[in-house]
Structures are given as C-alpha cells and as structure tokens.
C-alpha cells in the first residue's frame, strides 16, 4: 500500500515516465513481505531499453523491472534505495520521510 504522495507529484512522475524520462518518486510503503521497509522509490521510464541501461549502471537486474504497460519501473528499497538515490544526487527524495518513521 502506498501513501504520503501528493496527487500532483504522482501526475508529474507519470508524465515524465510516459515521455521517456528516467523519473523518480518516493513514498511511504507497507508490504508484509518487507516489514522493516517504510519507503520505496519507483524509478520509471517508458523506454524500456533506457531503463535497463540505467538499471545496469546501478547493478539492477532487468528482470526486476515491473513491466507495467504505461509505467514500467524499478522499485528501490533498503540499501539499494539509499545508495542509488545518493549516486543520482536525489537523497532529497527521502528527506521528507527521514523523521517520520
């Protein structure tokens, strides 16, 4: 279950993904399979080849792509999330959640 997003943030992410940009969005997340994870970052791009190349740069397996018809994306959690956001200069994606979980 996802929460902690503003509607406009989600619209912007979807627009960027559909236009072929590598787009990031972070939100609160609850999944019983990962009880210690409180946030997820979705990194999407409608250009699958571009998304695969981006993922390879960060050691991500293309099999991990959620091949949603409109919004293909990787889900980043845990250490992958922090390391990749740091490498991409996007730790601000997590800042707003830092003291809330």
Keywords summarizing the entry:
single chain, 101 residues, alpha+beta
Produce a short descriptive summary:
This protein has one domain (2-95).
Structural commentary:
With 101 residues, the chain is of the alpha+beta class. The protein has one domain (2-95). Helices cover 36% and strands 19% of the residues. It has four helices and four strands. It has helices spanning 7-18, 48-57, 78-87, 92-95; strands spanning 2-3, 23-29, 39-44, 73-76. It has a four-stranded antiparallel sheet. The two termini are 15 Å apart. The model has no long low-confidence stretch (mean pLDDT 90).
N- to C-terminal separation?
A: 15 Å
Helix-strand sequence:
EHEEHEHH
Helices, by number, come to: 4
Provide the helix percentage: 25-40%
Sheet with most strands: strand arrangement:
1-2-3-4
Rg calc: 13 Å
Average pLDDT figure: 90
Tell me the total number of β-strands.
4
Strand-pairing-aware structural class: alpha+beta
Shape: globular
The tally of structural domains comes to: 1
Q: Give the strand content.
A: 15-25%
Largest sheet: 4 strands, antiparallel
Show unreliable segments. none
